[in-house]
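Hi all, long-time lurker, first post. I run a small reading group and we've been trying to get comfortable going from sequence to structure in the token notation. Rather than ask abstract questions, I figured I'd post a concrete chain and ask someone more experienced to write out its structure so we can walk through it together at our next meeting. Sequence below, copied exactly:
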Amino acid sequence: MCQLKLLILDGVTAPIPCDIPCTLSLYLSVSVFLSLSLHQTLPLKVFRWSFCPLKTLPLTDHQRYELVEINLYDSQIVQLWDGKKVLEKLEHLDLSWCKQLKQTPDLSGAPNLKKLNLQGCKKLDYIHPSLTHHKRLVELDLGYCERLETLGDKLEISSLEKLDLYRCSSLRRLPEFGECMKQLSILDLEKTGIEELPPTLGKLAGVSELDLTGCYKLTSLPFPLGCFVGLKKLKLNRFVELSCVPYTTHGLESLEAWDFSDSPILVGLLCSLSRLTSLSSLKLHGEFSRSREVSTLYYDLGHLTSLADLDLGYSDFLRVPICIHALPRLTRLDLCYCYNLEVLPELPSSLRELQAKCFDSLVASNVNAAISKACCGFAESASQDREDLLQMWISRKKMPAWFKDQEKDNGISVSFPHNCPSTETIALALCFLLQGVMDLPEQPSVICNGKEFINKSVFHGDLRLKSKYLCIVCVNGYYFSNMLCQDNRFQLQFPSDYRGIRVQRSGARWVCKQDIQHFKQLASRRSSDPPELLPLFPLHSHSTWFS
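-- Answer (accepted) --
Happy to help. Here is the structure in token form:
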């Protein structure tokens, strides 16, 4: 007897005669017809058929199936099955991007279902009651179900941990949440049509991730966000009262807020950030200064000692907080598309990535100083027994003179400095001045003598570049410890079929201990000067790039 347990028919549309004795009788005719004859002892566990042309699965009533997984991704299914089917072992059901599916099936015969993926079912407009009362379901994905208007009156899915309603644009209201739904941890309501939230949602204290961005019709909350005592990740925009942010909840690790509306609410949030001491990721995007009588704002990020990722992109800041250099764990700073930004802040030695692309407002002398200080700070703090590097992408039309060795085009020859003992050399800084348009499917890499020197993965993030940019990489001694006695030629390598960008100039500089000492002396003199209060916003707003 055939003991078939796995059947995959992904992409099958041609006539395929097949006879599997005692287990499966399968025949695909020109009209593509599937006949399943599944006995009670059938061992088939997994059935996958992406792009399945069938309108329904011909499962038999009252027949017990051993299926654990059914995957019909991007199929023509209109109704999965009719009535109740006995699928007691079914745990995973994937109907994602079945664009003709109009309703969820009766799941009362699948009591052990754990994951249901309905993402992209654009015609789905009916949820069977058996789903709203399922007891074992852990994950429910309804993202991109654009016609779905309701989930019913009440959800009582006691095991549900993740509910994804991303881009359910027709969904106007959420059902009430039963007291049994204490396992709910992740709730994604981004870009839904939600007009209000049910009060019972506020009783689910276990919610750890909440996304309310793009909920344009949601203007207020019926409960304070502080009721989510386990909240770790929060995403909001101007349409939600940001004053509801749970300042008393010290466990918040990630906060993302958008505001392009002149609302003073986000300003109030900025002034209170110091209370969120557990934040490791902070993203603030917006235009904060238009039509404001108060054009300067001073706030303190120095208390955010856990902050590792700070994203202030797409904002109209004049200057970023001067206390950034005091953040001991900050590894990434994103200032892209900040068209009013005039100066770069003093960067902490912990920084490993700086993105400052798509603006020309930066003062050249400030940029050059920031680059040299960042490289020296990295050299002092970098580990010498493992790979460690600093990368920076900065809008700039000229290469800083700090890079002593410079050559035209793509390539710089570097020899170990004769006037500096090897024990005094800590890091190597490389700089490439780029011009052109870069929208790469693959990331560039640094090569040395024709061989890969730095793995491509270090250049992650948005590389859709225009105009001129500096690509700066500073590496610790671990990278060059095996090539100190040879002449080395470094180049920036792009995918072989890409010609949209050109390296105009290449530069390099060895960072030695004497550079570190000079850097420390400057920092010491600066710390003895009176503290400088820097305006955060333009005195007179003149930006139009958000219009």
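A couple of things your group might point at:
The longest helix spans residues 364-381.
The two ends are 70 Å apart (CA to CA).
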